[in-house]
Design goal:
The chain has one helix spanning about 40-45; strands at about 10-15, 20-25, 25-35, 40, 55, 60-65. The chain has about 70 residues and is mainly beta. A hairpin with a 2-residue loop joins strand 2 and strand 3 (about 25-35). The longest helix is centred in the middle third of the chain and has 6 residues, at about 40-45. The chain is flat and about 35 Å long.
Length: about 70
């Protein structure tokens, strides 16, 4: 998930660990770490706006995607 991209989905973290970063000049700044049972993407869907941060997996992870039409 890249900062600035259109939202389109809510993600539930079933298993794993994710890193949340925001762009700050040439490098990203880590602002949070997420784990099992956390979620991301709700603001983008509810407010119809672009992603406010980039998210990447720290280890093998399983996520459940719920599209904006279903949400």
């Amino acid at each position: 998930i890249k900062q600035g991209a259109q939202s389109g989905a809510f993600w539930y973290i079933y298993l794993g660990h994710l890193r949340v970063e925001q762009e700050a000049g040439p490098r990203g700044v880590v602002i949070n770490f997420l784990k099992d049972r956390d979620y991301i993407g709700e603001r983008g869907i509810l407010e119809n706006r672009a992603r406010t941060a980039s998210v990447s997996a720290v280890d093998d992870s399983q996520l459940i995607r719920i599209s904006d039409g279903t949400f």
